[in-house]
Amino acid sequence: MKLKYTSAVSTAFILLIGTLLTSCVDYLDPYPNGNRDSEDLWEYQDMVQGLVGQCYDYMPRNYNDNEGVYLDGASDDVVITSTTNSMTRLAVGSLPTSLDPFRTYWDRDYRAIYSVNLFLKDRRGYNTRFLVDPHLDGLVKNRLQGEAFALRAWFQWDLLQKFGGKGMNGEMLGYPIVLEPVDIGKEVNFARSPYDECVKQILADCDSAYKYLPIAHRDFLVPNINDRAYAGARYWGRFDGITTRAIKAQVYLTWASPRFNPGNDLTRWDMAAKYAKEVMDFKTTTDAVSKGFVKTTAVNWFDPNFPGIIFSSRYQNANDALERMFYPGGFQGNGAVGVTQELVDAFPMKNGYPITDPKSGYDPAKPYDNRDPRFYSTIFYNNAKAVKINTSNVMYTFENWLNGKDAAGPPVNSRTNYHIKKMVFMGLNFSDNAINRQPHAKFFIRWSHMVLAFAEAANQVEGPNGSKYGLSAKEAIGYLRARNNSDGGKGFTTDPYLTEVANAGQAAFTNFIRNERRLELCFEGQRFYDIRRWSTSLEPLNKTVHMARIVKNDDNSFSYDLNVPVETRSFKSAYLPLPYDEMLRMSNLVQNEGWDAWK
Amino acid sequence: MQSTLTYPLRGLVALLVLCLWAQIPASAQNKTPKVQPVNISLQVTDEQGNPIPNAAIVVGEGNLHAETNESGIFSFQAMPENFITVSSYGYTKSVALVGTLVNNSVVELKKSKLFNNTEDEVPLPFMSFKRRKLSGAYSVLRTSDLEKYPTNDLRNSLTGLVPGLEVIERDGSTGLNAEEELGNFRVTEKIGLATRGRSPIFIIDDVPTDITEMPLDPQEIESVTIVKDIVGKAMLGPRGADGIIYIKTKRGKANERVLTVNAEQGVSQVDRFPGWASGAEYATLNNQARTNSGLTPLYDDAAISEYAKNDPYSFKYPSVDYRQLMLKDSKSFSRVNLASTGGNETVQYGAYLGYNGEGDIFKLGKISDYNRINVRSNIDVKINDLIKVKVDFFGGLNIRRSPNYGYNPNFTSDDGNTNTALDLVEFNSAIADITDTPPIAFPIYAAFGDNADAPWYAVSPNTAFRDNPIGNLVHNGYYNETGRTGASNLTFDYDLKEILPGLKSKTFVGFNIFNSVRIGKAENYIAYIATPGKTASGADTVTLSKVHDGTDLAEQAKLHDYYSQRFVVYENLSYEKQWGNHDVQVGATYYLGKISKNGIEEPQRQQNAVMTGVYSLKDKYFVQGVLNYAGTYSFAKGKRYAMFPAAGLGWVISEESFLSDVKAINYLKLRAEAGILGYESFLTPFLYLDRWGVNSSGSAFGPYSTNQWFGTNTDNSVYRTTANRIGNPDLTWEKRKEFSIGLDALLFNRKISVEANYYNNLRDGMVSQLFNTVPYTAGISNARPWFNYNKVRYYGLETSLQYSDKIGALRFSVGGNATVQNSKILKYDQANFRFDYQSIIGQPIDTYFGQTYMGKFASDAETLVVPQIYDETLQKDDLKYEDKNGDGVVDDNDRSPIGHTTPRLFYGLNLRVGYRNFDLTVIGTGRAGYDIPLTNKYFWNGWGDNNYSNFTKDNMDGESPRLTYYKVNNNFVASDFWLRNGSFFKIQNVELAYTVPLGAGNLMGIRGLRIYARGANLLTLSKIKDVDPESINSGVTVNPLFRTVSTGIKLTF
């Protein structure tokens, strides 16, 4: 009896084990999960859209990074307070490969290009059905197709601007052009394309984009009110047709510049002027019609919908990054960057004359008196006051004199005794109980950019007072000089110096435009590229930048020494290095000249 | 919660112990014992009746240790109910009641083969084997080995005991944190275990369980087997590939009823706590640094002498010693437990109740401590001759209380966007602030201001010092974190002898569940920048500028939680048979395991079938083998399952005729193992699939608000698609190809035991993400695929030597173990290199790359000869490096292997001495043959406004480079200037114990009483003096290590 019972249990055991062993096959299969692989991608229209949408996320959204004000830290406008910052180290010639600040952009640009290449390959993105209604679906797919081309142009332009240059083989090189999604199973040893080919590819992508895109994302340009769900204002911040024209203007401007235009091919200048003028005309006609855009309106850095914008990043809400970064420790900031004496000296006087001009009335003992109103809206200097917006409350007085609380020295104060005022919101006080933070965005292309590009190009083509484009370089600059300032200051109403310098000829006017460009675009990450494209040697890059040394006298007056060296720029190359680890990965890459240790 | 649970319990047990203790003198005075001791003259013989000299005799569970004389005779007096254990190497142990020996005092011991007794069983996954038969190296530890170390973390007590097992204490934080293994929220590994270059896993009663989730006390442990060789590891399957710490908890034994009560109380003192500059010293050093960098000094002599007053409340000249104000030097340690086992032939039981308590070193803020209760019970019931059911339960409760430090969920960082992350180890944030903040940055607080009710704290105008450490500690709230562990195992043993004699079945199902919830308040305090000044009339005044407001919460909230759940089921069939000279023991196991954890999307699953067995011939030649068919959820179908074989050979050479006459050799076994085992570390699931993410969060395109000049509609769904991974469908198991060879010996009348193992392990096809082969230009740098790529060889020699003897009444054992280890990279996803010295191929895995230090620059001019690109300009006395590639510039390309960071030799020494009723145990460990880069904050500081460490202060211009206000990057890059010999030796553990002779029975029926004093981490000998060489971050960025001393008693009933 017992024996039978146990045998039965034993048999049951063996059966049980047998069942377990045979039925366990599925146990390791994945549980239901949302994993989407590369083929699933095409079954979800939101994911297809996302290939384009993601690229906008790769764009900077403020000026507080290595593409913004820190990049100016490697030019003659800004000194970065931290001596260990990679940009500082680039500027003083002590950048180790391990601290390369630009590798991340190379990487980012190619990630974006991979994403749009996936969208564009075999018109797979364009052939996706986004909406049921064929008309609306057409709006969406045309826009996305256009954006994909525009994004590819944008990120290629970024690669070209950062990494394009004379290679160690003596040729002008761009970046490896990649127009298909890369299959890593195949050969991935790319070589750089010639500079001119890269330019042409960017221009071609701009033209492709222009064909698909609406001229601009404005509700008033979409006549059918039902279409505004899929067109118009809701796509502000995405690429539109006029932006691709602006990109072309900028690409031509760089391509025409002395460093990249050894033969001084004037057609490049001409194209730059032409496209810049096209964008200007768009602003002064189409955008002005709706009373959005007025030429004399000051830049409003806290309005992400500021009408002077041609193309902008999306905004960061309620943001105080710039105030934190620019203010000195005593004003609860980090004092991360300071303005050079060189930039301070570049501002003219209230009467429009540069300080070197005898007519200017500049007094070195009182260097901050009677300056161009733009100076006061751009820079905090010794004894300047931070006055709360729309009030007369002084939030802070800058004490930059020796042993003053904002004086150079501590890592929370600027090293030059100047702090940046541009782009900070004067209603923000960290000591307030409710801190008034405003949105910030990076205005990639504004009215001013196009005016400056036009003036520079037109001056090269026909001098300051030409008439070929229906607008002269002088008149264009006049727009900017007469414009109001963001702190409420008025622009020049009479401008005798402008006429004087325009009459002095093309060369004088070139220098004048360059200085205007410096003042208008400071801290936006432009100066670094500008001084490179304008020069053909290293000499203009490798200058010593200076600070102010200020002593407070017993009678509360100040003595200024404005010629104190603070940092010496030491570039062995006018170009940036290709990422060292990328050089190691791809033997076909040629490094830019001057970066011998990075080859 | 804890006050209702732990304290009464703790008190109860302590009271019980006290009562028992009080009974002893009383019973000593009471001269009327109920049972008289008996006199016995015992003779120990072998089966032929020949006397056995030097047989070990233990009476009354250790009350009396003795040996027989030349005639095998020993005379003693004992209580009739005492057990007497007689043993001698080479004979089966005999256990008897003293009472039964009154009439017949001859104890006959059966001759047995060495290491072939029941006590030589080595518990291994799913099956146990006698040590003699095994072809690998195994160490088995018991409660008595583990309980001597005063700690509540079992890992500490393994220190120095096992050849080849390195135990590294990294920080002395209070209690254990369950998320240590995952490393979430900046939790780091508190105690590292390493064997053969890898961290072994813990298996507790056949369920793989993190020791941090089920912290065990030594008294609840029956055995700990450390498995290092391939065959033993393969018995578990791929999960054992990194080595196994295989723990069996205590179960009852038939007819051995034991109750022990153990109470231990001690104190842990900070061992080395690196110091920082005081206020006056800071001001002096800061002045000097500023002068050196061409800046004006900030503090005049008058100010410095004001700072020297060290007044933390002074508005004008504050000088705060944060460490002294916030931290104590010691914390309490206690453990009390009660363990009981017993049973009869039908039912056996084990019961355990343990309490562990540990204080913390915060002086301020809410109470901070750790309390833990372990309750374990198991019952084995014999249903009939064939069936046995075993039921185990475990319940654990641990409660960590602490102030929050610096954590405020409502606080937003400077840019107004991101939340500060929770820091699970609040001390790490605290010590960071304590050491960074200049002592003179601000006065600590004032209890007035615009709100008399709420004290406010001062902070610095310098944004780097916007936290007041004392405010953070006192007014960031607090938490109670309760961790709950529950475990339940069921084993069903079934003897299948009806089918085939010797065939047995074991069915096991085990669960355990861990959950921890942190409840508390995360608050904030009012902070001002306080600037002293003068009013117009010249009176002193303070201008306040508010930095942030206070937050006071009315209710507690859940701040954090975590869970894990583990499940194991296995079925094991085993078969044993002896015939003639042959002996076979084989088993087959099907094993299935599943782990679910907080934050891991897919439960981790493996299953495998293991065939294992030993064949012995004449108890002299042994063949052991394992065949492992394993599957894991981590790989694609078709790549999931693989077969892994391993086998070993053993040969007791001492029994061969040519050695049997060599008297000096009592036992000598040679053994060797080789095999392949799969490994995968529970990878992120689906590495074999492409993975695309879609996201539609983030700011919208379109107008910032409605009614803008160009339109109105915002676009809220910005789809963003990212490639997260390019899948590799070919991904499969990493293969461990391992070989080991070893010997075990007993020499010179068994006084000397020797063990030696050589191993050579190859990790082939390690699952690695290829960072360095796929270029950025491909555009998938965020989605790089994983391959079976890297290949590393580990090899080394593990030895141990023990000499045991006695001289008169002095029993002693002295010995040690030493391990020599190294590794070599054979294939590695490394960046391409221009110069051979940049390659890591052929180097050990712990290779440290850096610049080669050539001395300091003798002059400013010399710095220009070969420019070093880390700074714009260098000066005399800056560090000079070798231009390895001779290209005329020193840069990153000149970095070469300059050292290695794990010891080539580690060793443990032990001394055990017994004299009469005293016994002493001393364990020391050491490490040698490696370099420690002194690159943490304590050594790398001195620029800017942060505080200065004693190292910087005391070694200026010598071991510490010149002091500058602007950091000289050149002097703070990896180089052999900063490498130090890491060798050290520590007295890790000492126990001095006295066994109180209990000649006569006493009222409480105590059979054994042991009083002991214990110490841990008592002495460190090293060249590095300021910091602890075992963990140079201890006391700098993490908790300091502690020296613990304790006293206690153990009662056996």
From TrEMBL, chain A:
Q: Name one Pfam family in it.
A: SusD_RagB
Which GO CC terms are listed, alphabetically? cell outer membrane
Q: Where is the RagB/SusD domain?
A: 317-595
Primary place of residence? membrane
Identify the residues that the record assigns to the SusD-like N-terminal domain, covering every copy. Answer: 26-218
**What are the record keywords, sorted?**
Cell outer membrane, Membrane, Signal
| InterPro entries, sorted | SusD-like_N, SusD_RagB_dom, TPR-like_helical_dom_sf
- Cellular location of this protein? Cell outer membrane
UniProt KW Membrane keyword: yes
- PROSITE patterns listed in its UniProt record: PROKAR_LIPOPROTEIN
Q: Which family does it belong to?
A: Belongs to the SusD family.
Q: What is the name of the protein in this document?
A: Carbohydrate-binding protein
UniProtKB/TrEMBL annotation, chain B:
Q: What's the superkingdom here?
A: Bacteria
Which key words are in the record? Signal
Q: Which SUPFAM superfamilies has this protein been placed in?
A: Carboxypeptidase regulatory domain-like (SSF49464), Porins (SSF56935)
Signal peptide positions on this chain: 1-28
Write down the InterPro entries for this protein, in alphabetical order. CarboxyPept-like_regulatory, Plug_dom_sf, TonB-dep_OMP_SusC/RagA
Species: Persicitalea jodogahamensis
Taxonomic lineage is: Bacteria, Pseudomonadati, Bacteroidota, Cytophagia, Cytophagales
**UniProt name for this protein:** SusC/RagA family TonB-linked outer membrane protein
Asked if the Swiss-Prot or TrEMBL record annotates the protein with the keyword Repeat, the reply is no
Is Signal among this UniProt entry's keywords? Answer: yes
